[in-house]
Amino acid sequence: MTRIKLALCQMNVVDNKEENIKTASLMIEKSVSKNADFIILPEMFNCPYSNEKFIEYGEEEQTSNTLYEISNLAKKNQVYILAGSIPEIDNDKLYNTSYLFDKQGNIIAKHRKMHLFDIDISGKITFKESDVLSAGDDFTIADTEFGKVGIGICYDIRFPEYARILAKNEADILIYPGAFNMTTGPAHWELLFRMRALDNQVFCVGVAPALNKDASYHSYGHSIITNPWGDIIAQGDEKESLIISEIDLDEIKKIRDELPLLKNKRDNLYEVIEK
């Protein structure tokens, strides 16, 4: 299958885990009614984006009610679901972790955010995930019936080396659940997704929470799909919305044949490698 119908669930996240799971479930069911093949939730979809809430909302994988509900929805509807990310507790550490479920409700990939969001933009925003979160170390690629899917989370997209290694390992779609803010979002969100798609001649997908003005952290929203030519083929605004769009993986070969960037690299002079 070369055509895939993606559903980007740009949901409003509130300070109530059960309400967030309910919202995610309703958006998943609506996506299924529109014949989506692959459904994607945003970063920290069950939890407000703050260090204090990461601690409060943290769940262990084996006993997570959030993951249990998403697994059941994937199995019930025979659909792939990327559960954006949740705060995952593992022993004495806390991670920002994304889970991919197959059509049987099994976890087939798990990505712990590799690059933690530690920034201080003078007069605008300061945030330091590393105060409470630990970083993951794995490059995450899942085999699906559609081909290979690479997974990153939010800040991971700013590092071209990460995307290049996923592409070198034959990922055709790079998906980054992410919650850019109202400072970095307008400046860089669209640009980064177009760049990573263009650099690697792949499809690149970003799924964000909607803007909740009552929250302490204001998400930019604007969930997006970019194609291997660097074009935007679907994008939302800041409001809660369900974005449905079909992509054709045959575009990748066509564009790589026409503009063979990856073949024209000078590997004898430089290289991006996984350590």
Judging by the overall fold, what is the CATH architecture? 4-Layer Sandwich
Share of helical residues = 25-40%
The CATH topology comes to Nitrilase/N-carbamoyl-D-aminoacid amidohydrolase
How many β-strand stretches?
15
Number of domains: 1
- Please write the string of helix (H) and strand (E) elements: EHEHEHEEEEEEEHEHEEEEH
- Provide the CATH superfamily: Carbon-nitrogen hydrolase
Q: Termini, distance in Å?
A: 33 Å
Structure class: alpha/beta
Strand content: 25-35%
Residue windows where pLDDT falls under 50 for at least 5 positions: none
* Morphology call: globular
Number of helices: 6
Structure description:
With 275 residues, the chain is α/β, with parallel strands linked by helices. It has one domain: Nitrilase/N-carbamoyl-D-aminoacid amidohydrolase, CATH 3.60.110. 26% of the residues lie in helices and 31% in strands. It is built from six helices and 15 strands. The protein has helices spanning 17-33, 51-57, 65-77, 160-168, 184-200, 250-258; strands at 3-10, 38-40, 59-60, 80-90, 93-101, 107-112, 118-121, 125-128, 140-144, 147-151, 171-177, 203-207, 224-226, 232-235, 241-248. Strands 1, 2, 3, 4, 5, 6 and 15 form a seven-stranded mixed beta sheet that branches. Strands 9-10-11-12-13-14 form a six-stranded mixed beta sheet, covered by helices on one side. The radius of gyration is 18 Å and the shape is globular. The mean pLDDT is 97.
